[in-house]
Write a structure and sequence with these properties.
By secondary structure, the chain is an alpha/beta fold. The protein is 47% helix and 17% strand. The chain has one domain: NAD(P)-binding Rossmann-like Domain (Rossmann fold, 3-Layer(aba) Sandwich).
């Protein structure tokens, strides 16, 4: 049913590891042309691009710091230059940065978290809607989090708040861009085995999280990939926009 993704140009930010890498490989298997974005992990990004090609897709790697508005525009421009269009934008780049109690928050950390999770997505969208509007079609998929629903784990209020912003802007932009033939949706992963939790969550914390999941296990990045294919495919989800698709093993059921 995702046959319409063959030949589509897909830009995935933060695609060198984790959920972004899993999504890139899945689009490759669907025959898409994938721009694998990375900031510092060049070797990992090149490996993902190779996997995309081996799966039957086309791939390029694109470097840039998405906390920079200029870099966001350059990343989109590089995708359009390589593939002739941008049909799907997946705003996956983001992170917690640091677990900090509220009394220890600083302006610098506030700016770092909001720039990484919010401004990056908004500015990549601002760049991508120009060619999408010209084509009168497009799919934008943001990555939010279950933290946007329940407030996040210990010391993660900034991260959770920034993902709440992403969820809200998804709904607002869905309404703004629907006259242009552009659908805007989001996926909200729960606790997934990725470098995110390897860096920011202890084994004890992960065990505590696991106990709150009805499926009684932590998810894998590959298990998120199908949601991106579904939302990117007009054949599968043409009447879906402004949707937050929860991927959390039953941890949160809105």
């Amino acid at each position: 049913m995702t046959h319409d993704l063959r030949g589509k140009a897909v830009l995935i930010t933060g695609a060198s590891t984790g959920i972004g890498a899993a999504a890139a490989r899945a689009f490759g298997a669907a025959g898409a042309k994938v721009a694998v974005h990375y900031n510092a992990s060049r070797d990992a990004a090149e490996a993902v691009a190779a996997d995309v090609k081996n799966a039957g897709g086309e791939a390029i790697t694109v470097q840039g710091d998405v906390t920079s508005t200029a870099a966001c525009h350059a990343i989109v421009d590089a995708t359009v230059k390589a593939f002739g269009s941008i049909d799907v934008l997946i705003n996956n780049a983001g992170g917690l940065v640091q677990r900090v109690p509220v009394a220890e928050l600083t302006d610098a950390l506030f700016d770092q978290v909001l720039n990484l999770n919010v401004r990056s997505a908004l500015m990549c969208i601002a760049a991508a809607v120009v060619p999408m509007r010209a084509a009168k079609r497009g799919n934008i998929i943001n990555v939010t989090s279950v933290a946007a629903r329940h407030g996040g784990g210990p010391g993660a209020v900034l991260y959770a708040g920034s993902k709440g912003f992403v969820s809200t802007m998804t709904r607002g932009l869905a309404k703004e861009l629907v006259p242009d033939g552009i659908r805007v949706n989001a996926v909200a992963p729960g606790v997934i085995t990725t470098p995110f939790h390897e860096r920011f969550s202890t084994p004890a914390m992960l065990e505590g999280f696991r106990k709150t999941i009805p499926m009684n296990r932590i998810g894998e990045a590959d298990e998120c990939a199908g949601a991106f294919l579904y939302l990117a495919s007009d054949a599968m989800s043409i009447y879906v926009t402004g949707k937050i698709l929860e991927l959390n093993g039953g941890k949160y059921m809105p």
